[in-house]
């Protein structure tokens, strides 16, 4: 593994010092802030924390809306399954329009000719760093009165797969009104699950080999209503009311062979579960200019809702009908979330200073019935974040220096965790040539456990096997650094980097002896440490120098280890990969996406990422777009999990959704715009905590 990493980095180093000359960028020695240096003739400009892209007339004429322009960025792709833009590297991507958090439908509502440039942050600024791995900010032109609307639907012909959406915006003077609706429906009646539990208990050998067929699905709907008032060079105000409506279900039946030493018997079972919630959310934003160099912004977000989760399962011996176990869990979680942030920016001659304070509080009141009986308990999550950072540039040297203070205060019925952590961040960048750049980044960040890891809930998984949370978990502390080389010309847009991530008190999921119910429990612990290091190669290649043929590639040879609380060392190596081939010619576009799934560490398990083998084609005719494609060509979507040799329980899981196999899709969309609309240059973007489920 180490030889592979050293070889790949040597190759990237060879490219780093090549004598390639580019006319795509120019050197600028004087700037107020590093992101503002851009000229019309360039395609890409690399800065310390981001790349800035502009688009030529051919690209603007070919695109239907701004979303099509984002597809052309070397590290972004169109995910055909969700019909949304995603990073080729994975992780969470946050989209902004002039600094305001934007949905996929808002991006669609921007005409290509309105796009001035796109900022691609692979190192997010402090105000977004805790929320996303990548930030994409679309900068648009000035306001004019106008309106825009559109609709889109795509559906499979032989199974329950539907994506639908509609949007409308109207701008008059300094006021803008927006309305959005989207729906995603999945209804699959052929999900096949094989799970094996193999373990020693009280001197006996047990094995449960279960085959199950599920009918499962979900429906997710989102409705948003937006009002914006923008007075240029004075103030901006926005209020947004939206509701997320979600429900899911799973109904499965199956059989298993249960073995105890040399004795075996046939079991039958059913497993049903589901959850639902409606999240109403109010988001208020206000910013005010204070002279030419200062701006103050405030953002308040609040939500209150109830999540209902249920799970019913039973397993019995076929011959006798005797019950092996029965599981009946009902959870009603009432959740209140509030987020507030205050920020200030000041422009100096040498750079820009940004400072702020954010507080987020989530209270969950749980009404629970499970294997341990009935209980009522509350959990409170509080996080405070003070931050300041200064960014600037000196000739070919750019930098961003940040310092923060983070407080995590988690309180449950069993435990209270309270800790303050200093969170520094450093980004250094040096422009080797007009088209080559070398960057270093280092940061230290605390990461709080997710709600289900802290939960005291108990769920039966199999005979003698349950799952439970751990209310005594502490936050993880993550130290990350990376060295990245960037190179671009007419044909290549390429990044090669070394990365190293060290996690103290790493949260690890593992099996332990269950002293309450007997058997084993799958639970969580704070391990001693975790490490992940490797090389990441990403980028695109255009053999003809245009969009007629584009190949995007991600290769990430990685080595990872976890040291458990007992000192056991868990190791894993993998080669992360993703390949996208696309072509655009006049009104036609085509994309093919492929990967080879790999196992990566997740606590006591190795999990594969989702397999991809998709192709889709679209044709644009005036305001209409017709599309078709086939997803998971020749294969079902598949997900695998297996335990590590150190685990007390040898566990294997293989899940296949047969409905996805060679799934044929047809789609139709219509988009119309007249004039231009107000886009708020918003500096703060926050989100309340997701629904608490187990």
Describe the structure.
With 694 residues, the chain is mainly β. Among the domains are: 43-140, Ferric Hydroxamate Uptake Protein, Chain A, domain 1; 186-325, no CATH class. Helices cover 6% and strands 66% of the residues. The chain is built from six helices and 39 strands. It has a 22-stranded antiparallel barrel. The protein has a six-stranded mixed sheet with strand order 1-2-7-8-5-6. A hairpin with a 2-residue loop joins strand 17 (351-370) and strand 18 (373-394). The longest helix has 15 residues, at 2-16. The radius of gyration is 26 Å and the shape is globular. It starts with a helix and ends in a 19-residue tail after the last strand.
Task: Compile the SSE list and pairings.
Elements (H helix, E strand, L loop, with lengths): L1 H15 L27 E3 L3 E4 L3 H6 L3 H6 L4 E4 L4 E4 L5 E5 L2 E2 L2 H5 L6 E7 L4 H4 L4 E7 L5 E11 L3 E13 L2 E27 L2 E28 L3 E26 L2 E28 L3 E24 L5 E25 L3 E20 L2 E22 L2 E15 L4 E7 L2 E9 L2 E12 L3 H4 L3 E5 L2 E4 L7 E13 L3 E13 L2 E7 L6 E7 L2 E13 L8 E14 L5 E17 L2 E7 L4 E4 L2 E4 L4 E9 L2 E8 L5 E7 L5 E9 L5 E13 L19
Parallel strand pairs: 5-8, 24-28
Antiparallel strand pairs: 1-2, 2-7, 3-4, 5-6, 7-8, 9-10, 9-39, 10-11, 11-12, 11-38, 12-13, 13-14, 14-15, 15-16, 16-17, 17-18, 18-19, 19-20, 19-21, 21-22, 22-25, 23-24, 25-26, 26-29, 27-28, 29-30, 30-31, 31-32, 32-35, 33-34, 34-37, 35-36, 36-39, 37-38
């Amino acid at each position: 593994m180490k030889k592979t990493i050293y070889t790949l980095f040597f190759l990237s180093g060879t490219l780093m010092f090549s004598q390639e000359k580019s006319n795509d960028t120019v050197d600028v020695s004087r700037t107020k802030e590093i992101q503002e240096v851009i000229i019309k003739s360039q395609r890409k400009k690399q800065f310390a924390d981001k790349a800035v892209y502009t688009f030529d007339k051919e690209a603007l004429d070919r695109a239907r809306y701004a979303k099509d322009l984002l597809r052309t960025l070397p590290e972004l792709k169109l995910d055909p399954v969700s019909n949304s833009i995603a990073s080729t590297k994975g992780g969470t991507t946050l989209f902004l329009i002039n600094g305001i958090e934007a949905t996929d439908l808002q991006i669609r509502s921007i005409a290509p000719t309105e796009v001035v440039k796109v900022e691609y942050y692979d190192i997010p600024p402090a105000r977004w760093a805790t929320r996303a791995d990548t930030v994409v900010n679309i900068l648009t032109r000035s306001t004019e009165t106008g309106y825009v609307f559109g609709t889109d639907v795509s559906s499979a012909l032989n199974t329950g797969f539907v994506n639908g959406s509609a949007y409308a915006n109207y701008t008059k003077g300094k006021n803008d009104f927006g309305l959005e609706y989207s729906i995603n429906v999945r209804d699959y009646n052929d999900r096949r699950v094989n799970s094996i539990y193999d373990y020693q208990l009280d001197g006996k050998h047990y094995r449960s080999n279960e085959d199950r067929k599920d009918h499962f699905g979900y429906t997710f709907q989102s409705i948003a209503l937006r009002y914006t008032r923008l007075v240029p060079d004075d103030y901006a105000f926005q209020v947004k009311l939206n509701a997320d409506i979600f429900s899911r279900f799973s109904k499965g039946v199956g059989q298993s062979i249960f073995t105890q030493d040399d004795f075996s018997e046939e079991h039958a079972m059913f497993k049903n579960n589901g959850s639902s919630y409606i999240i109403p959310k109010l988001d208020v934003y206000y910013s005010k200019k204070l002279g030419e160099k200062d701006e103050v912004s405030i953002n308040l977000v609040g939500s209150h809702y109830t999540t209902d989760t249920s799970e019913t399962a039973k397993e019995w011996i076929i011959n006798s009908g005797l019950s092996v176990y029965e599981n009946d869990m009902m959870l009603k979680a009432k959740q209140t979330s509030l987020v507030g942030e205050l920020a200030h920016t000041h422009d100096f001659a040498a750079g820009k200073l940004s400072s702020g304070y954010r507080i987020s509080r989530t209270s969950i009141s749980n009404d629970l019935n499970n294997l341990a009986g009935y209980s009522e308990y509350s959990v409170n999550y509080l996080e405070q974040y003070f931050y300041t950072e200064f960014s600037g540039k000196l000739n070919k040297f750019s930098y961003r220096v940040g310092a923060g203070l983070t407080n995590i205060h988690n309180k449950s019925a069993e435990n209270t965790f309270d800790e303050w952590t200093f969170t520094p961040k450093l980004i250094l960048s040096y422009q080797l040539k007009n088209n080559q750049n070398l960057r270093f980044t280092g940061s230290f960040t605390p990461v709080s456990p997710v709600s289900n890891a802290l939960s005291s809930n108990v769920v039966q998984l199999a005979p003698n096997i349950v799952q439970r949370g751990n209310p005594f978990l502490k936050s993880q502390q993550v130290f990350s650094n990376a060295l990245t080389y960037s190179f671009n010309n007419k044909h290549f847009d390429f990044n090669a980097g070394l990365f190293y991530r060290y996690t103290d008190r790493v949260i690890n999921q593992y099996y332990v002896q269950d002293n309450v119910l007997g058997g084993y429990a799958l639970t969580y612990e704070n391990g001693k440490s975790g490490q992940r290091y490797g090389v990441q190669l990403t980028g695109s290649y255009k053999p003809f120098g245009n969009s007629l043929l584009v190949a995007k590639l991600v290769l990430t040879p990685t080595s990872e280890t976890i040291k458990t609380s007992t000192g056991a060392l868990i190791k894993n190596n993998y080669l992360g990969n993703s390949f996208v081939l696309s072509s655009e010619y006049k009104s036609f576009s085509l994309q093919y996406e492929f990967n080879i799934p790999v196992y990566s560490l997740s606590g006591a398990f190795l999990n594969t990422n989702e397999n991809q083998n998709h192709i889709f084609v679209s044709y644009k005719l005036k305001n209409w777009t017709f599309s078709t494609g086939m997803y998971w060509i020749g294969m079902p979507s598949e997900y695998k999990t297996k335990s590590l040799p150190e685990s007390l329980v040898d566990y294997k899981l293989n899940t296949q959704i047969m409905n996805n196999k060679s799934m044929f899709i047809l789609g139709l969309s219509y988009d119309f715009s007249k004039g231009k609309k107000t886009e708020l240059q918003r500096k703060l973007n926050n989100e309340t905590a997701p629904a608490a489920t187990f």
